[in-house]
Amino acid sequence: MNPYNKLPATAFWKPAVATKNLFDITSLWQPKFKLTSQHKIVTFGSCFAQHIGNALVERGFNWVNNEKSPHGLSESNKKLFNYNVFSARTGNIYTTSLLKQWTEWALDKAEVPTEIWQQDDRFYDPFRPNIEPNGFESAAELHQSQQQAIKSFKISIETADCFVFTLGLTESWRNKEFGYEYPMCPGTVAGEFNSEIHKFHNQLFAEVIKNLREAVTMMREVNPKLKFILTVSPVPLTATMSKNHVLVASMESKSILRAVAGQFSGVNFVDYFPSYEIINSPVFQGVFFEANKRSVSSHGVKFVMDSFFNSLELKFGVYKHKNIATPAKTMEVICEEALLEAFGGTN
Amino acid sequence: MEICIMGNSHTGALKQAWDAVIDDFPNIQITFFAQGQDTLNYLIVQNNKLIPEREGFAKALEFISGGKREIDPTEYDIFLLYGLNARANFFIPNTFSTAVVNTAMKDLTNGSLSYTLLQRLRKITDKKVFIGHNQLTATDNVISTDYPESYIKGIEKINEFIYRPLNAELICQPLETIVNGNRTKGEFSRGSKKIIVRSSDIDNTAHVETDNCHMNAQFGELWLSNFLKQYLNQ
Predict the structure, then answer these.
(1) CA distance between the termini of chain A
(2) Does A124 reach chain B within 8 Å, measured CB to CB?
(3) CATH number of B2-231
C-alpha cells in the first residue's frame, strides 16, 4: 500500500486523460461552494470574464447587472456601449492592480484621478477608453458616467454573494507622476502616448498577489460574506512591451497569473475555476482557438462553461432553475486589448 | 376636422370609445384604417396616396373605414398612428450619456411599423402626424401611483429628438391610467376586444383574460378624450 492507492481516477494521467477522448475529460473542477439562483453573482475582469456573465444568465443563475442600459437600447448597441458586459460598466479590468484601483475608488480609499483625454470635441475616459465608442460630449458627462460606474461597482461589492474575477494581464501602463494605472496604453484606443508621463510596468508574482489580496480584503471588510471565484483568461497577449517574443511573454504572464490564482485560492472563501487549463492544455490540442490562435471559439467557450456547470451539478446535485434565459445570439466579446492589433505593426 | 386613424389591434379600444362618444364631438370626423398585427405594412405609396398592396386587405380597409380602399392625405387634416409597435420612452436624467440616450431612442423607433408608416406619410404629406404608442402593459400589482416623471420626460425627449423634426408628436397615455411609473392599471385591460376584419365582418370578440397588452373601451374613451381635448383643443 502507498498513498496513491486510495486516490480517485482523476489523480492519474492515464485514466483521467490519456485514454479519454478529449471531450470526455471531466471533473476538472471540484467547486468549493454551491451556487444557486438565490445567490447574487457579479463578474468582472478581462475579456474572457464576459462569457461567464452570459453563461450564468443563460443557465438561469442570478447574474446581477448593477448598471443597466436605458430603455429601448438594442442588444447590439448594449454591447457597443458596454452594457450587460460586466456587472458594472467598468470596462475590462485586466490586472489585479486595476481591480485594487477600482475597489479603492468605490470604497472611498483613493481619489479618482481627474485626468481625461480630449480628441477634437470628444472626451475619453482614460480608465474606460472604449466605454463610449465616440467618446463623451463633455468632461462633465464623462465624470458623471465614471461616477455611475464606480457607484455600480460599489453596489456589486456590497451586495453580491459571489464575485467572479478573471485575471488577464501582468503588463500594465501607469502614470509616472501619480502612480495610477490605465487599462490600456495611452494612444492606442484613445488618448496620446507621452513617454514623459506614461510608464510601462510588467508585474511580477509578488505584486500581483499583493494587489489581489488587498482588493479582496477591502471588499470583504464591507461584505464579509463575499466569496470569490478566480479564473485566468486563456487568451494570449495581443502585443507585449516586455521585449520578449509575444508567445514567451504570454506564457510568462499567464503562468504568473495562474500561480497567483492557485496560491490565493487556498482559503475557504476563494475558489479557482480552470478555464485557462481547459483551453490551453496541450491535451486539448488548441481545438478551442479560432484561426488566429488567440481568440477562443464559441465551441471553446461552451465547453468551458459546460464544464463549470457540470462540475457544480456533480458536486451539489442538479439545481432546477426558473426563468432560463434565451441564449444571446452573438458571443462577440468587447476586448480593447485586441484593438492593439490596429496599432501594433505587422498583423 | 377630419382625422385619419391608422392602427393595429390596439385600435380596438379607440374604435369602441369613438362609437360611444361620437355625439360629444360634432366637429370631428374620424376614419379608421385598422388591421391586426403588421398588416398595415402592406400600404404602399402610390400616386400620392397609401394604397393596399393586396385585394383582401383593400376589402378589409373598405369595410372598416366605411367605404375607403386607400388613404388619400388630402382628405384629412391630421393623422394618428396608433399602436403599430410604437413604444413609450423613459428618461432618467444624469444617468446616461447623450450618445447612449439618443441611440436608445433610435433603437426604440427604428423598425416599428408606426415609424415606417410615418416615413411613408412624409413622402405624400407634411400634415401633422400624432403617434399613440402601444399601451403600457397592464398590471394589478400596484406599487405606486406617483407622478410618472421618467415617462413624461421620456416622451418629451423622444419628441424633441425623433418626432418633432418630422412634424410628428408622440402622445402620452392618460396619466390617470398609469401605475408604478411604467404600467397601466389592470382594470383597463379587462374586457378588451379585437378589431380584425374577416370576410366583411368585424371580429370584435374579447381578447383572452390573460392579455395585459390590449386595453378596453374605458381606456379608449380616456385616451381619445385626452387626445381630442388636450392635443386638438376640441
Answers:
(1) 57
(2) no
(3) 3.40.50
Q: How many CB pairs under 8 A join A and B?
A: 49
Domain ranges of chain B: 2-231
The CA dihedral of A101, A105, A108, A113, to the nearest 10 degrees, is 100
- Measured at the alpha carbon of residue A67, what is the angle toward residues A66 and A73, in degrees to the nearest 5? 135
**Res B19: pLDDT:** 87
Contact: B108, A136; criterion CB under 8 Å:
no
Distance CA(A260)–CA(A230), nearest Å, equals 10
Best of B96, B98, B149, B152 to substitute, by most chain A Cβ atoms within 10 angstroms, is: B96
Provide mean pLDDT across the span A215-221: 98
In chain B, which residues have pLDDT < 50? 197, 199
Q: What is the DSSP letter of B71?
A: B
Number of structural domains, chain A? 1
Q: Cβ neighbours of residue B50 under 8 Å, at least 6 residues apart?
A: B43, B44, B70, B71, B73, B117, B120, B121, B124
Q: How many angstroms separate the CA atoms of B73 and B4, rounded?
A: 9
Q: What is the DSSP letter of B140?
A: S
Which residue from A minimizes the CA distance to B89?
Answer: A71
- Beta carbons of A71 and B97 less than 8 Å apart: no
Domain range for A82: 42-336
- Measured between alpha carbons, how far is A294 from A61 in angstroms, rounded to an integer? 29
Number of Cβ within a 10 Å radius of residue A335 = 21
| Residues shown for chain A | 347
Rounded to the nearest angstrom, the minimum Cα separation between B156 and chain A is: 15
Using CA atoms, how far apart are residues B208 and B195, in angstroms rounded to an integer? Answer: 14
Residues of A in contact with B104 (CB under 8 A): 69-73, 77
Closest by alpha carbon to B103, among A144, A83, A143?
A: A83
ipTM of the complex: 0.85
Q: What is the pLDDT of residue A193?
A: 96
Nearby residues of B139 by Cβ (< 8 Å), 6 or more positions away:
B179, B180, B183, B184, B185, B186, B212
The chain-wide mean pLDDT, for chain B, equals 89
Residue A259 pLDDT > 60: yes
